[in-house]
Design brief:
This protein is 43% helix and 16% strand. A six-stranded mixed sheet has the order 3-2-1-4-5-6, sandwiched between helices. The radius of gyration is 16 Å and the shape is globular. The chain binds 2-acetamido-2-deoxy-beta-D-glucopyranose (NAG) (2 copies).
Length: 249
């Protein structure tokens, strides 16, 4: 990555915080789409506070609420990672969104290291395989949330490159991070970066990017890509989302 790109992306991120909801109502208008398997990788390391871990769960639930869920639409899986990777929810585990939501709520905070490489490896070699409920024809999307640097940036970045090379689209979400972490989280993500890298100052602020992340995932599916960034008017985020997230916890 060149310094020029690095200098540009704070502006891109500011723009992302204000991405409008692309004409969304309750669920994203992802109709006529291909089926997609989306896996969320949650940071479960010791650096995260209990409340903030809950906020991550609320964030996933809020995104799930926006997606058409089911065997011909979105399937949702969850892993959490610290020193180890924990399989929390298989892609085909729940038929009903309500049951999926309840299961997300029960995910436990493990409080150990930050093995992001292992999370990427596990996602590619296990979660996105048919043995784990993935559908071979479905688009593969991975949303990785982290508040810190992984244990080995070199290994993490190259593992992410392997995952992308087999067709896994990676969205990375950095929470309260500095330049070193930002470099890593940026290197992990798919291109265009403006559509795949999200940054917020604190876990509370995850609520402000629910619509942006769901829209980005959905738009990539529809093949609209980054053009959607410019074709819509800039609107403020939905103030209701934080309340909606709290309601789950
Ligand atoms: C954290 O992970 C390390 C390395 O895997 C292990 O040795 C240690 O016991 C773990 N600590 C806790 C509290 O689980
Ligand atoms: C980090 O990962 C790289 C590439 O896998 C490896 O060569 C290196 O030894 C690792 N560093 C540490 C400190 O484990």
């Amino acid at each position: 990555m060149t310094p020029l790109v690095l200098a540009e992306w704070p502006f891109i991120l500011i723009a992302l915080l204000f991405i409008p909801s692309f004409g969304l109502t309750a669920s994203i208008a992802c109709s006529n789409k291909e089926a997609a398997d989306i896996v969320f990788a949650l940071d479960s390391s010791f650096s995260i506070r209990k409340d903030d871990f809950k906020r991550q769960l609320g964030f996933i639930q809020a995104i799930v609420d926006q997606l058409e869920y089911g065997p011909n639409d979105y399937q949702v899986g969850v892993i959490s990672f610290e020193s180890d990777v924990i399989l929390e929810i298989r892609l085909d585990q729940y038929k009903k969104k309500w049951d999926l939501r309840k299961a997300i709520n029960k995910i436990k905070h493990m409080k150990n290291g930050t093995n992001t490489r292992e999370a990427l490896h596990f996602a590619r070699t296990q979660m996105f395989t048919e043995a784990y409920g993935a559908r071979s024809q479905a688009k593969k999307q991975l949303v990785i949330i982290t508040d810190g640097l992984s244990e080995n940036t070199t290994a993490t970045v190259s593992e992410a490159a392997v995952a992308r090379s087999v067709g896994i689209e990676i969205f990375s979400i950095a929470v309260g991070t500095g330049p070193a972490e930002d470099f890593e989280i940026h290197s992990i993500a798919s291109k265009p970066k403006a559509y795949h890298v999200f940054k917020v100052g604190e876990f509370k602020a995850l609520a402000s990017i629910v619509d942006s992340v769901s829209s980005a995932a959905c738009d990539q599916l529809l093949g609209d890509g980054p053009s959607a960034l410019t074709k819509e008017t800039v609107l403020p985020g939905k103030p209701d989302t934080e309340k909606a997230m709290r309601a789950y916890n």
